Amino acid sequence: MIKMLLRILLTAAASLFLLWFISPFFFGVRNIGSVFGAVICIAIIFRFGFAGIYEKLKVMLCSHSVTAVLLRIIQIGASAFVIYAVIVSGFMIYAMNVKPSRDETAVVLGAQVKPWGASTLLMQRIDAAERYLAQHPSSKAVVTGGQGADEPMSEGQCMYDNLTAKGIEPDRIYIEDQARNTEENIRFSFEIIRNHSLNNEVAVVTDSYHQLRARIIAHKTDASFKVSAVNTHNNMIGLSAYPTYFVREWIAVPVEILK
């Protein structure tokens, strides 16, 4: 009875998460996180929702030495992956909860600029930066992001325009408009901080799932910089894509470490 209840709960949870991973496709969000997350959910649904079929298939595979070894390898790999995912998720949760302790320099990471203005993702970062700067009137900010081929202006300039429109003093904001990725966001921002003698204790403004990778890049760029996190507040669209981006970081984090 308990095993059956557990199977039902796991199948129901996996089904809900499967819908959660698929939903970003309707908002134009397509990346490895969606695909990988959906595959994991389908595997869980098959294992626990169709336990009878799974057991028959297992018996059939175990009747042959080669397929039995392959099945065992898959089982060990799946167990190792679960352990890995839990460990990385733990570090991600830690990184997103390292709060600023004083008037750190805000480093606001860019995101896509649409033809009509800041994308939903970028506006969430702008709003988070505005809240932080309003609460820390002595803090400065570096807004960082270049201009992509399909963007009407640089991400840095877009963030500057929005923050000044929200009442943040222009002389508190430094624009970095050449970065093409997170690594360059951090590296070019640190150069601005050094060149203008700003506080090298920085608060990275980005989505919570992104904080660990940003922290790793910051440490690789200059370990003398102390890094804390200012997380965005997700709206409905942001929440719909959150698991997708979270799972994507499971892949992106080790890639960043191995660079």
Mind summarizing the main beta sheet?
A: 5 strands, parallel
Low-confidence stretches: none
Count of distinct structural domains: 2
- Examine the secondary-structure arrangement and name the CATH architecture of the largest domain: 3-Layer(aba) Sandwich
Report on the architecture of this protein:
The chain has 259 residues and is an alpha/beta fold. The protein folds into two domains: 2-96, no CATH class; 105-258, 3-Layer(aba) Sandwich (Rossmann fold), CATH 3.40.50.620. It is 61% helix and 11% strand. A five-stranded parallel β-sheet has the order 5-4-1-6-7. α4 (65-96) packs across α8 and α5 (120-135) crosses α6. The longest helix has 32 residues, at 65-96. The N and C termini lie far apart (49 Å).
Which secondary structure elements does this structure contain, and how are they paired or packed?
Elements (H helix, E strand, L loop, with lengths): L1 H21 L9 H18 L1 H12 L2 H32 L8 E5 L3 E2 L2 E2 L1 H16 L5 E4 L10 H11 L7 E4 L5 H14 L5 E6 L4 H11 L4 E6 L4 H23 L1
Parallel strand pairs: 1-4, 1-6, 4-5, 6-7
Antiparallel strand pairs: 2-3
